[in-house]
Specification:
The chain has 205 residues and is mostly helical. Helices cover 71% and strands 6% of the residues. Helix 2 runs antiparallel to helix 5, helix 2 packs antiparallel against helix 8 and helix 5 runs antiparallel to helix 7. The mean pLDDT is 82.
Amino acid sequence: MSPNYMRSFSEGCLRPPTVIGQFHTLFFGSVRMFFLGVLGFAVYGNEALHFSCDPDKREVNLFCYNQFRPITPQVFWALQLVIVLVPGAFFHLYAACKSIKQEDILQKSFYSGFYTFSVFLRIILEAVAFWLQIQLFGFKVNAIYMCDVGALEKKFNIIRCMVPEHFEKTIFLIAMYTFTVITVVLCVAEIFEISCRRLGFLKTQ
């Protein structure tokens, strides 16, 4: 791919054809990634090391932590961010290869329909991620986790484990749910803006 294509692709990703899309990309996307990258590491970075069970043995702690966290929240949210970006990135890659100008995207039905579909797909991916987050993490992190260690052939099948900084993790969970909801609202608003521009209620950029 030539440098011109790469430049057009990067400009398209950073400056979508809608005002709401630009707000989402330049402001909210940055805030969300900062929140996950910096605060997420501070809250979850040493969780496995501080997760302890009774009896406090390394093999028991590791077994119960893997049961408590089938996937770490940081990995899940990082995958969510990457996957949600794919539809928009694919559209802007297509636009760069076809040398489509940003101001022409909302002027032609095929381009605007393609872009709208990418936004709609983003909504679906965010909704699926929201549902998966509920299934994996719930809405609250309890201080005590009851671990089933029957597979380790221990004397007691159920043991108690202490979850470190459970209240901070609960706050962080609620924040990530909130980010997902705001993202979906912005995507719906962007589709509404596209419709208004197509119908002539708003001036195109």
